[in-house]
Amino acid sequence: MYILTTAPTFGDLQWNMVLGGFGLFMFGIKFVGDGLKSLAGDKLRDYINKYTSKTWMALIIGIVITVLIQSSSATTAITIGLVRAGLMKLEQAAGVVIGANIGTTITAFLIGLKIERYSLYFVFLGGTILSFANKKHSRHIGEVLIGFGALFYGLQIMGDSLKMLKDVPEFIAFAEAMSNNSFLSLMAGTLLTALIQGSAATIGVIQKIYESGGMTLIAALPFVFGSNIGTTITGAFAALGGTTAAKRTALLHTVFNIIGTTIGMILLVPYTNFILFLNQQFGIPPMMQIAVAHIIFNVGATCVFFPFTKSMCKFVSLVIKGEEGEQLEIKTDSLDTALIYQLPSSALTVAKNLTIEMSHVVIKQCNDARNYLFDQSDTSKENVTQAEQVINDLDTKITNYLIEISKQELSDSEMKQYTANLQIVKNLERIGDLSTNLAEFFEMVFEAKETFSDIAKEEISLMSDKLLDMIHLSIMTFVDESENAYIMLRDNEEKLDAMEYDFRQFHFKRVRDKECTSTVAGSVYCDILGTLERMGDHTINIARSALEVPSHIELKKEHLN
User: Fold this and answer.
1) Rounded to whole angstroms, how far apart are CA atoms 257 and 194?
2) Phi-psi bin for 70: left (phi > 0), alpha (psi -120 to 50), beta?
3) d(Cα 230, Cα 266) in Å, to the nearest integer?
4) How many Cα atoms within 13 Å fall on the side-chain side of residue 382?
């Protein structure tokens, strides 16, 4: 008796399990990355910025950060963001993005270890911590564990369902076509990675298909190579509308991966034979074969091209012409803790000098916010955002340094310096917050496909000019303890307040006369004026703190005589 069986079709696959498993896998990768970034906090950006003075150090940082956040795309996007803000040079960024290519191989390696069998234990442990922990730090650890478990459980669900592919005639034909035409595999890997913006996900799927016997190694490896090209799309998006240096960084990342992939494709047959040889010698499991091939390929490409990093930087500089712009370097190495215990007065001077540098970032941010109103460019908006991060970082570090100083035995004069500096830092940070709010108001209008009238733009520009003058005068008061600068500042504040009142009334009149027809712009315009006026108030607070002038006492001009 013969039992006739028909070959399975694509319709027989449990697509709910395939798609659901893939969704869990993607969710897990994102959750692990987000959780680790939350644990690291601002230190993530600090590490990238601080330890990249040499290209080889940048390479190591790129590897480490990518291993931690499980995403070379995220590492590249963060790096390009720092370049856009002028916080990193092209050669530094080059080392980081090249190192990210090595770091991203760790996910495939973990998958190859078949940790999936323990995935639900990670979910249980993470869920327990997340449910009962009160501290943010512990909750972030719970998020990482849940993400880690979801990543591998999703992979297991997807893999179990994909095993049927090896018996589907249509897929067998497709796999044979890829075996005979490696360029087809390369394009598929590139497009899939570009769509989901994650090389780890692409390689994870290929590992499962290869393990099930649905694909030969020579068809699978071009997928791996193609994922390196596809992952550059995130960097390209991050650089769109950005600075010249940011565009060069994105191009360098793309060129590096394209050249490496081209060499890999040329050497595909001998490289495949090499991996099969390793398998024969060491009995490497199928999924680990893909992981090993990925690691050796990316590490090898890095070793070959790393000595030519400077040459590659020169090449992309020739392709994308233009000035990179001034680099905004704010180093906090001067905040020497040992100096606090040895010479508190000198430590106060160090804090003051860094606070002055902080004011320069605030001034730049205010300029960028105003530029955003007129050019509506992503560059100006990104500069405002990046400056906000720098300002917040300086606020935290200077404040902590000052608090440590206050624990020492200080004279009355030194205690006054401490108090004044602390208040000035907080007011500068608040100006930075309000400057960010301005950019957000402008963005609301632009996203609504509206614009401000020429009159409204002129009024905002006039108030912005006056505000910038006031910030300069407030810092002059802080630096020189100049009463004259403070009196000039007070005069400017009165003018700024008058502008805010007059421009508000003009706006109401334009609304009554139906000259203002933009719904969102008309709604937020008064908020913008009020924000500029409040920023001016903080400059007064800075000057008062510097001169120890109480809010109810004003200096008179005759005090100067």
Assistant:
1) 13
2) left
3) 19
4) 22
| Long-range CB contact pairs, 353-358, < 8 A, 24+ | 354/330, 354/394, 354/398, 355/398, 355/421, 355/424, 355/425, 355/428, 355/478, 356/475, 356/478, 356/479, 357/330, 357/394, 358/330, 358/391, 358/394, 358/395, 358/398, 358/425, 358/428
Q: Which residues lie closer than 8 Å to 559 by C-beta, 6 or more apart?
A: 483
DSSP state, 47?
A: H
pTM metric for this prediction: 0.60
Q: 528: helix, coil or strand?
A: helix
Alpha-carbon span 158 to 24, nearest angstrom: 9
Closest CA to 442 of 368, 533, 535, 534: 368
Please enumerate in sequence order all residues whose Cβ is within 8 A of that of 251, keeping only pairs 6 or more positions apart, or say none: 316, 319, 320
Chain position carrying tokens 């002028």 = 86
Q: Cα dihedral sign for 50, 53, 54, 59? A: positive
pLDDT in tens, 253-292: 888 999 999 999 999 999 999 999 998 888 888 889 998 9
Q: How far apart are CA 206 and CA 224, in angstroms?
A: 8
CA–CA gap between residue 451 and residue 464 (Å, rounded): 18
Q: For the domain 337-560, what is the CATH code?
A: 1.20.58.220
Residue limits of CATH 1.20.58.220 in the chain: 337-560
Query: Tell me: the pLDDT tens digits for 400-457?
Result: 999 999 998 888 888 999 999 999 999 999 999 999 999 999 999 998 888 888 899 9
DSSP type of residue 8? P
Length of the chain: 561
Measure the N-to-C terminal CA separation of the chain; round to a whole number of Å: 119
Write the CA distances from 412 to 340, 350, 398, 406, 478, integer angstroms.
17, 18, 20, 11, 18
Question: What's the rounded Cα separation, in Å, for the pair 116 and 273?
Answer: 29
